[in-house]
Amino acid sequence: MVLIITTLRRIGREITASIFEFCFLVYLFSWDISLTLINVLTFKRTVGRVTPKGHPGEGGIWPEYIPPKPGDSRCGCPALNAMANHGIISRDGRNISFRDLSRKVGETFNISPTFCIYVPRYAAHILNRSYNSGRFDLSDVDAHNGIEHDASLVRRDTYLQNDQGPPDGQLVASLLKCATGPPPRIQATASYSPLPSSDSPYFDVAVHVAKALADFDMNRTLTATDLSRRLGVRRPESRRDNGQYSLDFRHKIFGSANGSTMLTVFGGCVPDLYTFLVEERLPDGWESRARDRMGLTMFSFTRVSLRIEFGVKEEVDQPLNLM
Q1: Is 202 buried (19+), middle (13-18) or exposed (0-12) by CB count in 10 A?
Q2: Cα–Cα distance measured from residue 320 to residue 323, given in angstroms and rounded to the nearest whole number
Q3: Looking at the DSSP assignment, which residues form a beta bridge with residue 97?
């Protein structure tokens, strides 16, 4: 009898959770489409006034940049690491509230509230924590095949590099060197510096990238085609070098979404991306290139992600593995 009652309770809980999740996602995506329509019908935010008044980064003035110290928590996401390095979230990268992260990501990068709820909530569920009351350390996000995935554009696979905190200089250089787009429409920030201080944990990465790009014209932009082409190189590399390589369609979309961030939030601007990807720093004077009145929505972001993903020619060149 106890077994029957327990079974029925478990089934009931699963059905209730599934119904709630379906209704919540319908609500969230409907809200997101509404925000997308508002963005289409309204003027964009004025250049120089994208970051909300009274918030870190207003007018391009970011809080002091302090690289991570030994014992600080960092992850494979440059955006979260940069926020910690600037003290927008806790500098040690620990005990961060999911709900607080939603608000601060939106303010920092001009991301819509729908998008800012969806991604941290998704991360909370992967970690089996509550979005409303849960907390996490940045390194928790690197749970393999949760959000973190193989064939990253700027990190080696977990199989090859267990600590996903530091970027890989060779991968960052290869990514930036594939840029073929024209000079950025909005001028890159003048504070661009090729090397951080020698005591920075990013120094070795910066030295490698600076040498690799010594003869490269930085005054250009990454395009969706560039990112598709680069992913088409990274995935076979990862498959060759990683004996535990796995990358399902969901994680392929995550990889393309990383590229979408570089285009939508950074405008593909190579000098700004250099600073962001190498030092995980927001350059002085920088503001989000996503200037939509209601912030960058999931719909708009996903449209760019899919353009990148479906441009990866190597995906159709691979033989089908049907058995």
Answers
A1: buried
A2: 9
A3: 135
Cβ–Cβ < 8 Å for 278, 206: yes
d(CA 160, CA 242): 7
What is the 3-class SS of 134-191, one letter each residue? CEECHHHHHCECCCECCCCCCCCCCCCCCCCCCCCHHHHHHHHHCCCECCCCCCCCCC
pTM of the model: 0.93
Contacts of 224 (CB under 8 A, 6+ apart): 259, 263, 304, 307, 308, 311
Q: Which long-range contacts (CB under 8 A, 24 or more apart) does 210-219 make?
A: 212/169, 212/170, 212/173, 212/174, 212/177, 213/173, 213/176, 213/177, 213/274, 216/176, 216/177, 218/176, 218/192, 218/270, 218/271, 218/274, 219/183, 219/184, 219/188, 219/270, 219/271
Please list the ranges in the chain whose pLDDT falls under 50. 190-191
Distance between first and last Cα of the chain: 43
C-beta of residue 189 within 8 angstroms of C-beta of residue 271: yes
**For 164-207, what is each residue's pLDDT tens digit?**
999 999 999 999 999 999 988 776 664 456 667 777 889 989 99
Helices marked H in the chain = 2-41, 78-85, 98-109, 113-126, 169-177, 203-212, 224-241, 249-264, 270-274, 298-309, 314-317
Closest CA to 297 of 23, 104, 40: 40
